[in-house]
Amino acid sequence: MKTMAVILFVVLVAATSVHAAERVERSTLLLAGAKAGFQEARYGDDGKLAVHFEFNDRGRGPNLDASYVLDAHGMPTAIELKGVDYLKAPVAETYTRNGNALSWKNAAEDDKRTLAGSSFFLGLNQVPEDSILLARAALAAPDHKLALVPAGVASIHKLATVEVKGKDASRSVDLYALKGLGLLPDFVWLDQDQRFFASYSGWSTLIREGFEDAIKTIGDRQEQEEKRLAEARASELTRQLTSPLLIRNVRVFDPPSGEVVNARAVLIDAGRIVSIGDADVSLLDGVEEFDGGNRFLMPGLWDMHVHFTGGADGLLDLASGVTTVRDMANQVETLKALIDGIEAGKDIGPRIIRAGIIDGKGPFAGPTKVLVDNEKEALDAVRMYKETGHEQIKIYSSVKPELMPIIAKAAHEQGLRVSGHVPAFMTARQFVENGADEIQHVNMLFLNFMFDKVQDTRTPARFTAVAEHGAALDLSSPQVRDFIQLLKDRDIVVDPTVGTFEDMFLGRPGVPGPGFAAIVDRFPTTWQRQIRSGAGGLEMKPGQQALFRDSYQAMVNMVGVLHRSGVHIVAGTDNLAGMTLPRELELYVEAGIPPKDVLRIATSGSAEVMKRDSEYGRVAPGYVSDLILVDGDPTINMADIRKVRTTIRGDRLYDADALFRAVSIQPATKQ
Predict the structure, then answer these.
(1) Residue 623 pLDDT greater than 90, yes or no
(2) Residue 249: which region, alpha, beta or left (left: phi > 0; alpha: psi -120 to 50)?
(3) Could you write out the DSSP letters of every residue in 517-574?
(4) Are the C-beta atoms of residues 52 and 65 closer than 8 Å to each other?
(5) Does residue 386 contact residue 369 with C-beta atoms inside 8 Å?
(6) 273 has which bridge partners?
(7) Calpha distance 174→193 (Å, rounded)
């Protein structure tokens, strides 16, 4: 018995020693303020690190396990990552470094390289702790700069220090800017031991467990730095038009007429168009002349489906010729602050129209704090959005079907439009018949005819069902024609965002979809790698590639059928700001819509939907001077819409090339 006691004591001590040697760091992920997932990092004293990361976003979200072997400097010499990505496609990735020999393999890459000196491998798929390992490595590197593998250079510098309080302790944490990964610096918070503390944004925050109450503190401080950087960019890149501007030698396109008139002059003053033609400027003092270089002048574009996050979004929009966007779901105060900054000239961005999202409570609720479960909550939500300057209600997938008509009626009484995803357990026909004015996403139209196959559309089933069955839908069938007639008779607007499905349905590991083909070479190398990997595509079973392609083509064809049937379409992307709108417009042309009509959809047609067509969307006297100068002629070749040279947003003028360079993107045009 005594011997057994000694053995048990030794085992207990050994187990305690192992536990004590392991440092566990656990962080909570919040989406729109609600807990949605976590990361757990386990550092051993043997140089091994194990990380688990997962979150749930409306049934989507990754579930990843990563294991690392770290050298004495904390640099990974071996990585293994397994699990599923955001769209639940399987992930398997490995990396090893032995001296100067590096090798890595994932679904899109199988590569080897010999490289001397210190470098950091960027996984194609990552958990948040990867950025912390990189941050520590960059801080230890000469001049805080570190080579990246496969390509690029990362740098880091400290911006601020704040004191925060947690449930059981207080501590000092530092804000760092990590450059070389994205279009603008990434922000990360580390504690004094250079361990992960938080990664904050208006949409989502990952923060050390027990310090959730510190989100406001770090958020306010980080936003101060973001505003400081934004003001510097705005000051450098915005040319304020303080006197009349005569734009000579341009080809003018006014969408309602569909005509392109050569060799014209356009006079603007105080943010408005004064005259078109051979303007008599003798009566105006201090007129400045601007040579348009025989370029194509047209109204600024509208993107009717965005989720504006500030930062690079505003620069990308204006550089791409997008002067107005409709935000289809955001945090109320966050979006207001972004709009206030832009309108005050302290940031760069388009005009923003607000649509407020309402969802139902439950495990698949969207990333919003506005969740309703009964009539009172629904009415309160509509009232709140009206009082905060929103013009539209976007109903989301988890709203109870019986609440949908209540929301629609209340919104209409408040003068608000009603749109959205078709709620789960409801058909698109029922959505329309119960008061919707608009439907987001073309897949929602297809699901109207698949109710026998999928009724709960809160999950990725709303994508996979269409991918698997969309090709079989006969767009000329009586039931489809009858439904489209209903849309026309009720004056229902459709926001198809067909481009969002292109890479989702056509992309697969190692084979990217064509959505970014025309612009991929312009991005930083880290982005090029992600785009070319085919990441973001739906998981396909063997033999489904042709089926998915046919289903996607049916969605494109549906857009053309809608237009020819007289249904009002608006152009929205729900994708990367600015730069993905041209692809959306190209797809409309592919659907059989004439280019001039496509440009009308993306300008005056959108202004008409939002009841702004008396001031926006035309090149005509009295209209707001939201204008773009384009190389080429998009009424002939829609691809030319990518060649914006100058964007005028009222009384502010921007050089598109300079805006792109400010976010590390190569301009579309040549000097």
Answers:
(1) yes
(2) left
(3) TTTGGGS-HHHHHHHHTTTTPPP--TT-HHHHHHHHHHHHHHHHHHHHTT-EE----S
(4) yes
(5) no
(6) 268
(7) 10
Phi–psi pair at 89, nearest 5 degrees:
-75, 145
Residue 328 pairs in a beta bridge with none
Assign 65 to helix, strand or coil: strand
pLDDT of residue 292: 94
* Residue 604 near residue 617, CB atoms below 8 Å: yes
**Side chain identity at residue 661, one-letter code:** R
* AA letter at 535: A
Q: Which of 220, 161, 154 is nearest to 181 (CA)?
A: 154
Distances (CA, A) of 466 to 56, 441, 535: 22, 12, 19
Q: Respond yes or no on whether the N-terminal peptide bond of residue 185 is cis (omega within 30° of 0).
A: no
* Cβ 319 vs Cβ 656: under 8 Å: yes
The one-letter code for the residue type at 491 is: D
Distance CA 592, CA 214 (A): 53
Here the tokens at position 10 are 């030794």
**Whole-angstrom distance, CA of residue 223 vs CA of residue 351:** 21
**pLDDT of 41:** 96
pLDDT digits (tens, 9 = 90+) for 389-417: 999 999 999 999 999 999 999 999 999 99
Helix (H, G, I), strand (E, B) or coil at 254: strand
pLDDT at 250 over 60: yes
| Among the listed residues 87, 48, 51, the one whose alpha carbon sits nearest the alpha carbon of residue 509 | 87
- What local confidence, expressed as pLDDT, does residue 532 receive? 87
Q: Please give the Cα distance from 302 to 35 (Å, whole number).
A: 34
| Torsion 513-563-628-439 (CA) sign | negative
Cα separation values, 75 from 119, 141, 608, Å: 9, 11, 56
